[in-house]
């Protein structure tokens, strides 16, 4: 059965620093699709983050590239298997040089935190009680 994938393409100021940041979060790099101006971060079997130098990113768009430290161009939200895993990933991101970018969102059945990566891209990490999703 075909499983659809998502490839999130993000412009970065420093490929080497971004690669280090995401590996410190526990993600792997696929060297087959990585070059000096692009790093392929494997988040899961179906989620890939392509971190591109701004010069390489410009090859894929005619639009101006947003300064993600000043403008929100996308909110990326990842699910987590527990509240503890939410905290673990966000705490790793902050320890690796990311910044906490919002208050904790605790609604009981749903728990989330968020961080900005080294380039200011916003990443949310959310856990939702499976019983709440089913009912």
Folded structure, characterized:
There is one protein chain. With 135 residues, the chain is α+β, with helices and mostly antiparallel strands. Helices cover 24% and strands 33% of the residues. The protein is built from 4 helices and 9 strands. Strands 5, 6, 7, 8 and 9 form a 5-stranded mixed β-sheet that branches. A hairpin with an 8-residue loop joins strand 2 (28-29) and strand 3. The model has no long low-confidence stretch (mean pLDDT 95).
Helix/strand-derived category reads alpha+beta
Backbone shape: globular
Taken in chain order, the helices and strands follow as EHEEEHEHEEEEH
Estimated share of beta-strand residues:
25-35%
Oligomer: single chain
The residue ranges in which pLDDT falls below 50 over 5 or more consecutive positions are none
First-residue to last-residue Cα separation: 28 Å
- Overall pLDDT level: 95
The count of β-strands is 9
Q: Tally the helices: what do you get?
A: 4
Instruction: Assign a percent range to the helix content.
Output: 10-25%
Q: What is the CA-atom radius of gyration, in angstroms?
A: 15 Å
Largest sheet: 5 strands, mixed
């Amino acid at each position: 059965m075909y499983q659809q994938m998502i490839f999130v393409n993000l412009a970065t100021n420093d490929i080497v620093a971004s690669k280090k940041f995401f590996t410190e979060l526990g993600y792997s790099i696929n060297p087959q699709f990585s070059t000096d101006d692009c790093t392929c971060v494997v988040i899961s079997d179906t989620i890939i983050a392509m971190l591109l130098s701004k010069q390489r990113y410009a090859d894929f768009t005619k639009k101006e590239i947003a300064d993600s430290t000043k403008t929100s161009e996308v909110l990326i939200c990842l699910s987590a298997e527990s509240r503890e895993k939410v905290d673990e990933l966000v705490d790793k991101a902050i320890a690796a040089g990311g910044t906490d970018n919002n208050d904790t969102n605790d609604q009981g059945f749903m728990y989330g935190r968020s961080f900005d990566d080294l380039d200011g891209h916003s990443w949310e990490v959310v856990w939702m009680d499976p019983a709440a999703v089913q009912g």
